[in-house]
């Protein structure tokens, strides 16, 4: 014990004093301990967490891809593709600046860049498993789920909100509404 005390000083904290025990000698020094010490530690922690936050790369030049079993949309090319049993139809779908901004805002608000590559919210024993995929600036996320959403699938809910925004805008375009429904379906 004496050996440890000779190598490592021990600090004892008291509200008004710091006691240093060194080489079995007790030295008492008065310290000016401010009452905002816990606040300083808290603020330092918050600043460090904010600085570690991943910076978003979503901007006006961002491009995205929507893909489900039958349909694909690529915002970079503006091409919408619908698959049929023995055919494929490709059309050009133009998004307005407001529509694209609304979709990119959904990506940003739901922290798409922080989602895992695969979100599996499927319930074992329930069929069919549905596979949806979104890409933003070459970041790909696949969402596996059943027809009903899982109760406790937080990342799945984020993915679904983005997916719904894209679906509401693109599938309400006249060009897409005029297409025949796909003959491909989950069984």
Summed up:
With 187 residues, this protein is α+β, with helices and mostly antiparallel strands. Helices cover 30% and strands 27% of the residues.
Search tags:
disordered N terminus, 187 residues, single chain, three-stranded antiparallel beta sheet, 5 helices, seven-stranded mixed beta sheet, alpha+beta, 27% strand
Description:
With 187 residues, this protein is an alpha+beta fold. Helices cover 30% and strands 27% of the residues. The chain has 5 helices and 10 strands. The strands form 2 sheets. Strands 7-6-5-4-9-10-8 form a 7-stranded mixed β-sheet, with helices on one face. Strands 1-2-3 form a 3-stranded antiparallel β-sheet. α3 packs antiparallel against α4. The longest helix has 17 residues. It starts with a helix and ends in a 10-residue tail after the last helix. The N terminus is likely disordered.
């Amino acid at each position: 014990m004496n050996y440890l005390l000779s190598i490592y000083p021990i600090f004892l904290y008291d509200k008004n004093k710091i006691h240093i025990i060194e080489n079995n000698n007790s030295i008492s020094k008065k310290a000016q301990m401010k009452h905002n010490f816990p606040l300083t530690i808290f603020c330092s922690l918050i600043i460090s967490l904010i600085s570690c936050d991943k910076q978003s790369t979503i901007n006006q030049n961002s491009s995205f891809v929507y893909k489900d079993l039958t349909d694909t949309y690529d915002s970079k090319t503006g091409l919408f593709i619908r698959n049929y049993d023995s055919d494929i139809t490709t059309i050009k779908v133009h998004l307005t600046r407001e529509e694209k901004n609304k979709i990119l805002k959904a990506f940003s608000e739901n922290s798409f860049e922080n989602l895992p590559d695969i979100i599996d919210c499927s319930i074992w024993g329930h069929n069919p498993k549905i596979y949806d995929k979104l890409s933003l600036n070459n970041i790909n996320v696949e969402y596996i789920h059943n027809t009903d959403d899982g109760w406790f699938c937080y990342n799945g809910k984020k993915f679904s909100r983005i997916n719904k925004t894209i679906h509401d805008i693109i599938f309400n375009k006249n060009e897409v509404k005029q297409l025949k429904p796909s003959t491909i379906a989950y069984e």
